[in-house]
Automatic annotation (TrEMBL):
<dbReference type="Pfam" id="PF13520">
    <property type="entry name" value="AA_permease_2"/>
</dbReference>
<feature type="transmembrane region" description="Helical">
    <location>
        <begin position="422"/>
        <end position="442"/>
    </location>
</feature>
<feature type="transmembrane region" description="Helical">
    <location>
        <begin position="58"/>
        <end position="78"/>
    </location>
</feature>
<feature type="transmembrane region" description="Helical">
    <location>
        <begin position="90"/>
        <end position="111"/>
    </location>
</feature>
<feature type="transmembrane region" description="Helical">
    <location>
        <begin position="234"/>
        <end position="255"/>
    </location>
</feature>
<keyword id="KW-0812">Transmembrane</keyword>
<dbReference type="GO" id="GO:0015171">
    <property type="term" value="F:amino acid transmembrane transporter activity"/>
</dbReference>
<feature type="transmembrane region" description="Helical">
    <location>
        <begin position="388"/>
        <end position="410"/>
    </location>
</feature>
<keyword id="KW-0813">Transport</keyword>
<keyword id="KW-0472">Membrane</keyword>
<feature type="transmembrane region" description="Helical">
    <location>
        <begin position="31"/>
        <end position="51"/>
    </location>
</feature>
<dbReference type="InterPro" id="IPR002293">
    <property type="entry name" value="AA/rel_permease1"/>
</dbReference>
<protein>
    <submittedName>
        <fullName>Amino acid permease</fullName>
    </submittedName>
</protein>
<feature type="transmembrane region" description="Helical">
    <location>
        <begin position="448"/>
        <end position="466"/>
    </location>
</feature>
<keyword id="KW-1133">Transmembrane helix</keyword>
<dbReference type="GO" id="GO:0016020">
    <property type="term" value="C:membrane"/>
</dbReference>
<feature type="transmembrane region" description="Helical">
    <location>
        <begin position="315"/>
        <end position="337"/>
    </location>
</feature>
Length: 479
């Protein structure tokens, strides 16, 4: 049993061999921009439609429920990240607190999360890109539209979602060019994205009609199945738009590349989470108040659709254009996080070691980033937005639960260890995060739960076949 639960030494978690160390180049403004860039994206630009379709105007409560769970998880992440400023996020924390086999499951779940998030955002970006091209074609007289077969996967009658594939490789190229360079560009694009949301609120709020909020909760609070077999309700929507809140965990993957992790990581994680929660509440209220959810609930670009229906074609064009330009900030943050998860698991020997080599010129893991891009681009080309978002949430909920458990375990095991950031009311925050994540997992579509269990069954086989035998910690070497 000891081999399954062997743990890393928390004092050695930041010590790494030459050639497999990431370069610290980021400060707290980069981290807040990375967090906001990851959090404010597909969730509010596209999934607000999916959530409204499941919960009606009560999608506002769905945002609140998901936000509370994420806030508790964010506090746990802040404490763990400042205690262990190493790449790897929940995987690394689990390796030191809970043991290797559990860390593998968490890492495997993170691979699922980040891969599917990037794919989901790429598909969402494609919807706005195609809509923007159609608008440009209609207003310039020049046909810029793409063939339908190249803008959707097989499920929608197409062949491949080419824009989704292309944007994935563009962002991967930016990441391979250098971490600080891509983080600086990300910060600029985040500002543009927030300006677009401000434009939406400025146009939509004056059109607020209380009648659009009735009936407020047409499908009830708990998950239920309607006559068409669709799972609806406030918590069913919360389990999907939970996707809209996470992203702060991508900040924790940047711990090893942060100049002053003891201070900057907690500022980045908590600051981005608080800021984004306020943004979401205002934007969601403006959306459901300006128009009936039955109108925009099925749209691939709900915010732009609302603007057009309100007669503000110019504002719709601005939102569509900025979504095309700025949604890739989410791609950048999560593709970054995914490549770092692969990198750290490889550095520990649980995945092939070739993935943990750092390019001497750029200071980035080029091979890992390219491998990740190929994987997620293939998925984005053929996947459905709602299904892959739900499955990404399952992986995230597993990781969030593990981090909250790590928080409590280390508070008990090592109560006197120095903590640059201490989670307030840890014995309340931790259980709320754990219980909330488990309830949201139960609220996910049943098919998603089965897919998640199948994914982890495959992961256990992979661990037994490769990871357990090649683990550096298991072989007595320093990972």
């Amino acid at each position: 049993m000891g081999a399954w639960l062997r743990r890393k030494n928390i004092d050695q978690v930041t010590v790494h061999e030459a050639g497999r160390q990431l370069v610290p180049t980021l400060s707290w403004p980069h981290l807040i921009a990375l967090g906001i860039g990851a959090i404010v994206g597909t969730g509010i630009y596209t999934l607000i439609g999916v959530g409204a379709d499941k919960a009606g105007p009560a999608v506002l409560l769905s945002f609140v429920a998901a936000g509370i769970v994420c806030a508790c998880a964010a506090l746990a992440y802040a404490e763990m990240a400042t205690m262990m400023p190493a790449a790897g996020s929940a995987y690394t924390y689990s390796y030191t607190a809970l043991g290797e086999s559990i860390a593998w499951v968490v890492g495997w779940s993170l691979i699922l999360e980040y891969s599917l998030v990037v794919s989901t955002v790429a598909v969402g970006w494609s919807g706005y890109f195609v809509g923007f091209l159609q608008w440009a074609s209609a207003n310039t007289g020049v046909d810029m539209s793409l063939p339908a077969a190249l803008t959707a996967g097989p499920h929608a009658g197409g062949i491949v979602n080419l824009p989704a594939v292309a944007i994935t490789f563009v962002v991967a190229g930016l990441l391979m060019a250098g971490t600080k360079e891509s983080a600086t560009l990300n910060a600029v694009l985040v500002v543009l994205k927030l300006i677009a949301l401000a434009v939406f609120v400025a146009v939509a709020l004056p059109a607020f009609d209380p009648a659009n909020l009735h009936p407020f909760m047409p499908y009830g609070f708990s998950k239920s199945v309607d006559a068409q077999g669709v799972e609806r309700g406030v918590m069913a929507a919360a389990a999907i738009i939970f996707f809209a809140f996470y992203g702060f965990d991508a900040i924790s993957t940047a711990a090893e590349e942060t100049k002053n992790p003891g201070r900057d990581l907690s500022i980045g994680i908590v600051g981005s989470m608080v800021g984004c929660t306020l943004i979401y509440v205002v934007v969601a209220l403006a959306a459901v108040g300006a128009m009936s959810f039955t109108v925009f609930g099925k749209s691939a670009e709900p915010l732009a659709l609302i603007m057009r229906e309100l007669g503000s074609a110019r504002a719709a064009a601005v939102i569509g254009a900025v979504a095309v330009i700025a949604l890739p900030t989410v791609l950048l943050a999560f593709l970054y996080g995914q490549s770092r998860i692969f990198f750290v698991m490889s550095r520990d020997g649980l995945l092939p070691r070739g993935l943990s080599k750092v390019n001497q010129r750029t200071g980035t893991p080029v091979a890992t980033t390219l491998f990740t891009a190929v994987l997620v681009a293939a998925l984005a080309g053929v996947a459905r937005l709602d299904e892959i978002a739900a499955l990404a949430n399952a992986g995230t909920l597993a990781a969030f639960t593990a981090v909250a458990v790590c928080l409590l375990v280390l508070r008990k095991r090592e109560p006197h260890r120095a903590r640059a950031f201490r989670t307030p009311l840890a014995w309340i925050v931790g259980p709320v995060a754990i219980g909330g994540c488990l309830y949201l997992f139960w609220s996910l579509p049943s098919r998603t739960q089965v897919y998640f269990l199948v994914w982890n069954a495959i992961g256990v086989i992979a661990y037994l076949a490769y990871g357990r035998r090649h683990s550096l910690l298991g072989r007595g070497e320093q990972a």
